[in-house]
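Quick one: structure tokens for this chain, please?
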Amino acid sequence: MSAPSPQLVFEGPDPERLLLEAWSVHGTQVRITEPVTVRRGGVGGFFPKEPYRIEVVPGLPAPAEPSFHDTSEVPCAVPSSTDEPQARAAAAPVRRQVLQPSTIHRPATTAEALDALVDGRSGPGAATPSLAPPSPVGAAVGTVTADPAAAADYRRHLGEALEGRRLDGLRVVVDCAHGAASAVAPEVVAELGADVVPVSCRPDGVNINDGCGSTHPAAVAAAVVDHRADLGLAFDGDADRLIAVDHTGAVVDGDVLLALFAVDMAERGELDGGAVVVTVMTNLGFHHAMARRGIGVRETPVGDRHVLAAVEAEGLALGGEQSGHIVFRRRATTGDGILTGLLLADVVARAERPLAELAAGLVQRVPQVLANVTVADPGRLAGAHAVWRAVAEVESELGEGGRVVLRPSGTEPLVRVMVEAPTEVRAAAAARRLCLVVEEALAG
């Protein structure tokens, strides 16, 4: 009896795709005919060692299988899911085989199907794998292109924000947090005429935000004082946020920066809608400062995407967060720390006054206490009536001189509690009271 030839053959470097093709065309008998190295579990899925080949033999009964292919062994390495991507376990011999409809059920997932083929397992596993094309993995994900002109275009865009004005006469410390701003920020600030002192501008892939940048402003503050600079600009690693430092080394956070920009833009007729967007975490002192100047405030949940959505929805020009993530809708579609830094330096240059003087007394910060309460299910907060009764009581006691914000964390099993009050003591006492109520109401 001559050996029948396989009627369908699938070859290529991606075993997952080949398996899907084989099942979709004829989910009966499938055999492995080339060596393959497989990594089970974890990100990355399956990694073929050599080109992979699957043969489908439709309609052939199981007893005929030995007549047309041998039983030589196929080496197959199966590392643990905890191994590094490059790790490979010792090869284990696995026999090639034909899998019949009577002895194998279509697996529920492609991973289970390939495991069954490689390990020789059969029996009632689960149903058909998805026939959707598998997602790319490893080096096959995405593409990498280079645009040498992009940096120059971006620098030009940043410079145009000053509308021809310059920063001559200012000495500015620029802290790039060993991050994304390193190749651009010092250059563009210098191109606009400032005397630049660059710090933390040597990224090596692991030192980003390491004791520097907006998350560690003590470094830029020290550099400003040491170099007798007019101000310091500290970005975070991806350069979408800015924290500033005045000539004395005092930190100027996002609330004060946003107030400075709001007042300046209102005076120049550039504050579209006469209002600014902030989040619920913005200090109550900011609200008071804007009210004194006739500037409206729109409040959103925490997150720059909520700020941007509100800015766009009302056609406003300005929004931001206490973290220093500030959106200038006329000039950018999202927060840009370098743009924010340039516009701040421009405010100082035009005013011909120190940043410390411009910021002094602008936002009279209300004492604020933040606390986190660990709970099993933060999602239950919305229906915790006892908690909201307590919140109402505290708010009534504080009146216009205080504020309470409770919200579930979106990333951790926590309820975040924020209380602002006329004194630190009252704020701390109210926060402790609310934390106890949250713990009791959401216990278990």
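Residues 9 and 427 are 72 Å apart (CA to CA).
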